[in-house]
Amino acid sequence: MPVVLRLENITKRFGYRCILNEISFSIETGEFVTLIGNNGAGKSTLLRIISTLSKPTQGRIIFYEKSKKVNVREWRQKIGIISHENRLYGDLSSEDNLRIFGTLYGVEDLESNTAQVLLETDLFHVARLPVSNFSSGMKKRLMIARLMLCKPKILILDEPFTGLDQHSKKLFQNYLTAFHQQGGTVIMVTHQLDLGLKLATRVLVLHQKRIQHDNSVSEISIDQCFDWLDNNAI
């Protein structure tokens, strides 16, 4: 399958502190990659670099075998992100937030599609309330609605299940399964290891600033993943 993303010797430093050291791997179209590691291992930093929200100190990222400098705008149009920063407009309603993002992504039939994703994420009844009044779980559901509306080709997800109730978790799990089955590519960080392995086709273990393990899900078990991490803690 075509390679959608290639990292070559990515290193990230904050002052004298090295967070990531010569990270190299590639991801093919249609892969579902779960990235695991201890707290502070640099998982979120790595996702921010992949998302072009942060620049590496050294190394190179290649999107679709093209130079990052040439193709970064196209890459941003193809990705959908859930991160610790919700990037929502708090003073606007969920309806208005989705209209803004839908317009940026060129979504057709924007009004009807906005209403549909608000229904699917159980936010239709608060569609006109300011997002600043939402709970953390409601904001997470709105971020999921944004993905559903904009239909990205690649998902970059940092702890996407955190803050979701059981119903919302199941809804998002079904969305990810369908997205992957339809050929979408996913890169996900999660502390919910059982769910991460259930959804993924491949697992990367980030430890001591490097990718220490890179395995197909069919080759490993949850116990092995825990054994790969210091103190059996994720």
Description:
This protein is an alpha/beta fold and 234 residues long. It has eight helices and ten strands. The protein has a six-stranded mixed sheet, sandwiched between helices. The chain starts with a strand and ends in a 7-residue tail after the last helix.
- Provide mean pLDDT, rounded: 91
Largest sheet, if any? 6 strands, mixed
Number of helices: 8
Report strand %: 25-35%
Strands side by side in the biggest sheet: 6-7-8-3-9-10
Helix content: 25-40%
End-to-end Cα distance:
31 Å
* Beta-strand segment tally: 10
Q: Structural class given helices, strands, pairing? A: alpha/beta
Radius of gyration, in Å, reads 18 Å
Parts with pLDDT < 50 across at least 5 consecutive residues: none
Taken from the alpha-carbon principal axes, the silhouette is globular
What is the N-to-C succession of helices and strands? EEEHEEHEHHHEHEHEEH
Write the layout of secondary structure elements.
Elements (H helix, E strand, L loop, with lengths): L2 E12 L2 E12 L3 E5 L6 H8 L7 E6 L2 E2 H11 E4 L11 H11 L5 H11 L15 H15 L3 E5 L7 H16 L3 E5 L3 H7 L2 E6 L2 E7 L5 H6 L7
Parallel strand pairs: 3-8, 3-9, 6-7, 7-8
Antiparallel strand pairs: 1-2, 1-4, 4-5, 9-10
